[in-house]
Amino acid sequence: MHPRFSYDLKYCSISRALDVVGEKWTLLLIREALYGVRRFDDFARALNCGRAVLSARLKMLTDEGVLEGREYAVPGQRKRVEYHLTEKGRELFLAVQALSQWSERWMPPPEGPVARVIDRQSGRPVTVVMTSDPGVQRLTMNDIDILPGPGAKLLPQTEKKSGAVKGVRKVREE
Known about the structure:
Blueprint: H1 13-21, H2 24-35, H3 40-47, H4 51-63, E1 67-73, E2 79-85, H5 87-90, H6 93-106, E3 115-119, E4 144-148, H7 156-162, E5 169-170
Antiparallel strand pairs: 1-2, 3-4, 4-5
């Protein structure tokens, strides 16, 4: 018998994390929140998923403490909710970045990655690594910028509407 079967994994950390973030739309929603998307309609536009699916994922992530709902109102309209990452949610950046690095290594995009993550202070690329060195400086969301990579393409309607050029998405903790 394999030694793994000598242990009860009822409280396995991986399984428990996947209970919260282990579904495709959930991880993509977290990606968008990391990019700075806050409003329901913006999440729906970015993800192009069903509104019922999006609503259920936002509720679950809010209930789990990954997102925090904050009311806002546009003058003349009803109150709505913006979704902000909590500390618990911002810590998922490590997992999302590790998945991105894995994908870029094993399934590289033909024109390069669509996003680059750099250390704001040094300008060097940020990578997720395993280390046993307690002296390694841990970066936070305040220490990084997420930039368009060589594979990022502006949508035609974006270019026509605003004359936009590829820009920097400065990310800050809230």
